[in-house]
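To whoever is on call:

I kicked off a structure prediction for a single chain this morning and the downstream step that reads the tokens threw a length-mismatch warning. I double-checked the sequence; it's 149 residues and nothing unusual in it as far as I can see. Pasting both halves so you can look.
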Amino acid sequence: MNNLLSNNRGSVGRWIVIIVVAAAAFFGYQYFKKTPRYALIQFKKSVMFSNAEGTREFIDLDKVAARLPESYTNKEPDEKVKKRLVGELDSPTEKSIFKPVKNWSVLIVPIAVSENQMSATVIPIEGTKITLEKTTQDQWIITALDISE
């Protein structure tokens, strides 16, 4: 203990810097988890690794299924479309609806957040538009996917 507190070559200062850096990293990550970019990253990761449960955390399937174009829904009821979406998300094979997701550049794409900080719009690749909304728990979820074929 005496060696730790002695001022030989800045040992106390070194610990202070380590604690400050660790605290900044922890609080920075907590802040990042409450951004739309984090939701996009997690959504893409769960689609790429066929994790439907992880995907459900970052997408509102009710709203997304209702807003999909007829070319995807074939005028089927929303419940049937949601079931098909979940089946594709769990499937390790190529996903027809989510095929463009693997080409999304979610790390550098600009995100337009509304003035009230409750909704955001992202165009990760040309022809694809994503709408996100903030929940009461300060988490962002995808509420609309306009994916070009």
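Update from on-call: the warning came from a stale cache, not from the record. Cleared it. Sanity check on the structure: The domain at 36-147 is CATH 3.10.450 (Nuclear Transport Factor 2; Chain: A,).
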